[in-house]
Specification:
Belongs to the UbiA prenyltransferase family. Protoheme IX farnesyltransferase subfamily. The chain has 14 helices and no strands. It is mainly α and about 300 residues long. α2 (about 20-40) packs antiparallel against α3, α2 (about 20-40) packs parallel to α8 (about 155-165) and α9 (about 170-190) runs antiparallel to α14 (about 270-299).
Length: about 300
């Protein structure tokens, strides 16, 4: 809250933690760990811990820089209005310094203790999320999620590179799975959060193109995503365990996408398929990457 003179009160450690977007970070850490576990070769457990820690800190840096730049937008949305900056619990420049320090620390430690390839990809991922997505794309185009989805697709590639020092086909497929998964995942959310995004002036697809177009796009991206999800098994990188699970999970994902496509509800109360898709999409990605990592460990 604000003090008597509209000055932000001293921030607590919880506010700095909130800047890192812990929920988003958990998915980043998980997919990075799966990329690391799926990679061939050996990495010392201490080096593996350092790599995952740096990826987590880098994700936190991205979250802090995102909230620094979007404090004005966050203040207009019910979902984000209680974050530290719009709620007046922290000065904006403190969030900027915090994000820059976290980013520099994570990339520097990764370069010194792991390898330069993984550090370079980590640095680019922070730049992509903070500058390309947050500053450039998010307020300028309804394709913000499509292009910006690349930012969240880098972690498994970084985890892989931490072990191998290079990039091959499987981490590229991991990248593409997250990249193509992101639009239907976020557009399902955007459909029942349309009013919030409109109020904040963010050109999400449901706001600028309408709900029907958004539902069509969710189905289209879900169809495009499916062969990439099955590809690790089809190309021989995983066993039938992942293959069978990827087919079953993708069938459920496609079923929900079709339900959204068939839905014509305008009010949030009628958007049950959209809410189901958003919830299942998180489980879908977690399950796919967990199975991929486990499958590679037992091959």
């Amino acid at each position: 809250m604000l003090g008597d003179n509209n000055v932000a009160l001293p921030a607590e450690w919880r506010d700095f933690l909130a800047l890192t977007k812990p929920r988003v970070m958990s998915l980043v850490v998980f997919t990075a760990l799966c990329g690391l576990l799926a990679a061939p070769g050996y990495i010392h457990p201490v080096m593996a811990f350092i790599a995952i820690l740096c990826i987590a800190v880098g994700a936190g840096a991205s979250g802090a820089l995102n909230q620094w730049y979007e404090a004005d937008v966050d203040a207009k949305m019910d979902r984000t209005s209680k974050r530290p900056l719009p709620d007046g619990r922290m000065e904006r420049e403190n969030a900027l310094y915090f994000g820059v320090i976290l980013g520099a620390f994570s990339v520097g430690i990764m370069a010194v203790f792991v390898n330069w390839i993984s550090a370079g990809i980590l640095a680019f991922s922070i730049f992509f999320y903070a500058v390309v997505y947050t500053i450039w794309l998010k307020r300028s185009t309804p394709q913000n999620i499509v292009i910006g989805g690349a930012a969240g697709a880098f972690p498994p590639v970084i985890g892989w590179a931490a072990v191998t020092g290079d990039i091959s086909m499987l981490p590229i497929l991991m990248f593409l799975i997250i990249f193509l998964w992101t639009p239907p995942h976020f557009w399902a959310l955007a459909l029942f959060m349309k009013t919030d995004y409109a109020k904040a002036g963010i050109p999400m697809l449901p706001v600028v193109a309408g709900q029907k177009t958004t539902r069509n796009q969710i189905l289209l991206y879900s169809i495009i995503l499916t062969p990439f999800v099955i590809a690790p098994w089809a190309l021989g990188y995983t066993s039938y365990i992942y293959g069978a699970a990827s087919i079953i999970l993708s069938a459920i994902f496609l079923f929900l996408a079709v339900q959204i496509w068939r839905n014509d509800a305008i009010n949030v109360e009628g958007m049950k398929p959209e809410k189901q898709m958003f919830a299942f999409s998180i489980l879908y990605l977690f399950a796919l990457f967990a199975l991929m990592a486990l499958d590679r460990q037992i091959l």
